[in-house]
Each structure stands twice: as structure tokens, then as C-alpha cells.
Amino acid sequence: MKIISFENISKVYNSHSVALDSVSFDITKGEFVSLAGKSGAGKSTVLKLLIAEERPTKGRVLFDNQDVHKLPQRELPHLRRKIGMVFQDYKLLTDRNAFENVAYAMEVAGIPDEYVKRDVPQVLELVGLSPKANNFPHELSGGEKQRVAIARALAQRPEVIVADEPTGNLDPINTMEIIKLLVKINELGTTVLLATHNKEVVDSLERRVVILDEGKLIRDEEKGKYIIT
Hints:
Layout: E1 2-14, E2 17-28, E3 32-36, H1 43-50, E4 58-63, E5 66-67, H2 76-81, E6 83-87, H3 98-108, H4 113-126, H5 142-154, E7 160-164, H6 172-187, E8 191-196, H7 199-205, E9 208-213, E10 216-221
Parallel strand pairs: 3-8, 3-9, 6-7, 7-8
Antiparallel strand pairs: 1-2, 1-4, 4-5, 9-10
Helix pairs in contact: 3-4, 3-5, 4-5, 5-6
């Protein structure tokens, strides 16, 4: 069952900047898809279109068979709760510890306290950070910060995790640990869309790869490699 569809999407910022050019692909529920390409290939634009942060110049983006750009403004927070976002720079609150960072995301979404107290320890355990629940971001390594960010994205039980260059600031060992965690999350049933320009990561996954180059979709392969010709 398709959960995400990009239908003939173009995004033109101005006459000198075409971010996406007639891009079409679907993602099935439960898939793990790498969206690969060099910096400036259009990966971040795809992600912004998915959460309705940007509007397409042409085409449609569907999530659960709904055109995300036809949703009323009041329904966008509900859409975004179904899509857990993970970023390269973590976006953690520096004055809150790991537990509080994850809890805050749930509180903002209006989730009752009893669920927050129950679920935060569970997601911290899932990402292997139970012993660091009381540590603040400055007391965590880069890999640990990214695990908190992933826990925060998971806390609202999203249908999809979208990770935008989540290993961009990490060394090779922490990079592979974060990728293993995303694979584990996928194996538990959550769809994962990973945007990356890291060839080693893409090749090691041996999962589906969608490759963008200068705004065009040039390759879409099951168990693919990161190849630009």
C-alpha cells in the first residue's frame, strides 16, 4: 500500500533555480528508501514538500492518499505528527535533558502527561539511551544527540520517519550506529525515508535507492547502489 506519492513534481524558485524537474516516485508502507544525491540535487526540497513547508510549482504530493497541499492550515500539525523528522543538526533544546527533549515534543502535540511518562522511557530504551535520560545535550556525544533526536521523532508514533542527512556531522562509527538504529526502527514497522549524500551508507544498506541529480530523478532501484553516471 502506497503511503507517499510524488506525482510529476516540479519546484521552480526562479529562472535560475529549478530545484525539482518532473519527479515521480511512490513509497510503500513499511519500506526503507534512501533518497540520494549530491548537495543541491533537490533532496531537501522533496522533504519540505512532503511536510507542506514548500508548495510545488507543478504536480501533487500525496500522503495516505491525501494531497498535502490541499489540506487546511489547521490540519497540517496532524499531518506532521504522522511524519517524524530527524535533522543533521539535531535541533535539541540545550536547556533540557534527553528525557525532557523527548517529552517536550509530546507535550507540544497535546499528549496527556500519563502517556508522556509511559512512552518517553520506552523510546529512550529503544534508541539505547536509557542511562543518559538525565544528561543535557552538552553532556552527550554527537551520536547520542542524534539518538535523542530520533527518540523525539518516534515519540508520537509516526507512520514515517524522515531523516535529512542524519549522519552528516558524525564519524564513520557513529554513522553506522545511527543507520543500524534506523534499520531497526524500520524492521519494527515504521516507514523510513533517508536523505543522504553518503555513498558508503547507501551501498551498505542494500535497500531501495532513489537518486536525484540537478533536480531530476535519474535512478530508482531496489537494493541499489549510489551511482551517478
